[in-house]
Design brief:
Length: about 325
């Protein structure tokens, strides 16, 4: 679309020249240069943001994700090419607090429209059942670095994700008014599907035998809160955190006391810790996907398919009828 193009900062030009990027036309996964297409060019921080942009923008947008499929998003470091790509975009969509490098790059860029999904819904501090507030190092040695201790995983709650979708839709309407009617229509359709998903979770998790589920990393606090569940995480909000022996023993006792059958792991990080705990406690393992990216190993091709798979996994683990 490119209604205006701002000059690149001197540091970016110099770094790009050093890397031999020449024309500064960073190519996206789709082969088109962000900032040089006839569409509204959106750079999204990672899959849940890119999915919103694609669903809302439809045929009018060209979306590039800074996080590649299969890449763990929390510790993403941007290349100079990606920084240039961001600078050339019409809009940047991210979720502040999840990816510090992306937050910094967007803050320093001169991209015309900056959309922070964290401002479009309410973020919360999630304490686990033992009173450990995420956002600092707890007594188990878990280091949680998310800004302000706020849990960023709002997309795993369909209701909060719908709130974000509505805000993104309004931002697109304002930034690209020629296609505002289509953005509004697409947003309404997406919110309707998310409301249906919320209803499916509400109905599907009734009549369960236990409220407690164990995960490798604390990504499902909003989902748990929405449907009256209790998430016990082996590690904290960061999937790289290593649990202490005391935490593993504590979870083993919890599993026995609360009738837990399954330890959940995810697709983008190692399942070693989950399997160790499961073996020690005589439990099964299964996937509960935080949908930070879609890969060939994902149980579905998009957000909705993977969330439906997550629902089935939870129903089985919680004994829901």
């Amino acid at each position: 679309m490119n209604v205006r193009r701002l000059p690149l900062p001197t540091a970016v030009v110099a770094a790009a020249a050093a890397l031999g990027l020449g024309a500064l036309s960073a190519c996206s996964s789709g082969g088109a240069a962000a900032g040089s297409t006839d569409k509204f060019d959106v750079v999204a921080s990672f899959y849940p943001m890119a999915f919103l942009a694609e669903q809302i923008g439809g045929e009018h947008v060209h979306v590039t994700s800074l996080t590649q499929p299969g890449q763990e998003p929390h510790d993403l470091e941007l290349s100079t090419q990606q920084i240039v790509q961001l600078q050339e975009a019409d809009a940047a969509l991210h979720l502040k607090g999840l990816q510090p490098a992306v937050d910094e790059a967007i803050a320093q860029s001169e991209v015309g429209t900056k959309i922070d999904a964290a401002t479009l819904t309410s973020l919360e501090d999630h304490e686990d059942e033992h009173g450990h507030e995420d956002g600092h190092e707890d007594e188990h040695g878990h280091e949680h670095e998310h800004e302000g201790g706020k849990d960023p995983h709002v997309w795993l709650d369909p209701v909060k994700y719908a709130e974000v979708a509505e805000g993104v839709g309004k931002a697109f309407e304002k930034a690209d008014p020629d296609h505002a009617a289509d953005y509004r229509k697409n947003t309404e359709a997406l919110v309707g599907k998310l409301n249906d998903l919320d209803a499916a979770f509400e109905t599907g998790l009734k009549n369960r035998k236990t409220d407690v589920f164990i995960t490798t990393h604390a990504a499902f606090g909003y989902l748990a809160e929405r449907y009256g569940l209790i998430e016990e995480a082996i590690s904290g909000l960061s999937p790289e955190s290593e649990p202490s022996g005391a935490r593993v023993k504590e979870l083993t006792r919890t599993a026995e006391a609360d009738g837990v059958t399954t330890v959940f792991y995810e697709t983008l990080v190692s399942d070693r810790t989950a399997k160790t705990l499961a073996d020690d406690a005589g439990l099964k393992t299964d996937v509960l996907d935080p949908i930070e990216g879609i890969t060939d190993g994902s149980r579905g091709d998009d957000y909705f398919q993977v969330m439906e798979s997550n629902l089935k996994s939870l129903q089985t683990a919680l004994g829901a009828k």
